[in-house]
# Entry
Amino acid sequence: MPTPAEKMVAEQLVPHGVTDERVLEVMRSIPRDEFLSGVARRHAYEDRALAIDCGQTISQPLVVALMTQALNPKPEDTALEIGTGSGYQAAVLARMCRRVITVEREPALAERAASTLKRLGFENVEIAVADGSLGWPESAPYDVILVACAAATLPAALIHQLADDGRLVIPIQTGRDEPQDLRLYTRHGDEVSYRSLFPVLFVPLRTG
Ligand code: SAH
# Structure
C-alpha cells in the first residue's frame, strides 16, 4: 500500500511536470499532515492550498514541488525562505540543502513550525521572526532564496543576499486584478535576470 504522501506524488506531481527525482523522493518522505492542525489535517494530501493559523496558507503541493524544482537546490547549498508558515516548504528544502534559514513575521507561526520541525527531527533549519523583505543578512549569501508571499517588486535586500550563480523564486503581483507572476531570478556576477514560470496565488508579503 502506498502512503498518502507517495500517492500525492504519483497522482499530483509526476503527471504535472515535476521531473526532478530528488524533489519527488523528498516529498514522498515528509508527512504533510504533521504541519497542519484540526480539520485541515484530513485534507493534507489533497491538491490544494490549506488554511493555517493567523489567516495564512500552506501552498498546494504541486506549487511547492515546482518552486523547489526551479531552484535546483544542491546538497552543499545554504537556502533562505521568506514566509515560514507551517514549515512544510522549509522541510522540503532542508532535505535537499546543507542549511535553511527561514524568516516569518508572525511569532505564533514561527513557534509552531519550530516545534513541528523539531518533532520530525530536522536539525538544519533555523527560524527567525522578522520582516523577511529585508532578507537575513547574517547568513548571506544564499545559493537559493524562496519567497512564499507575493510582492509588487523583488525586494532589493534579497538580490544583494543572493550568491553568484544563485537562484531565487518569488511571486510578483503585477496588477491589482492580475494573477501573480511566479518568477525565477538568477544571478551571474552583477547580472540579474528572470524568467516567468507560471501564474500563482500567494498571500501578500507584508513589510514593516
Ligand atoms: N511556506 C509556507 C507557506 C507560506 S504562507 C508553508 O510551507 O507552509 C506565507 C507566509 O509569509 C505567512 O506565514 C506570512 O505570515 C508570511 N509573511 C508575510 N509577510 C512576511 C514578511 N514580510 N516577512 C516574513 N514573513 C512574511
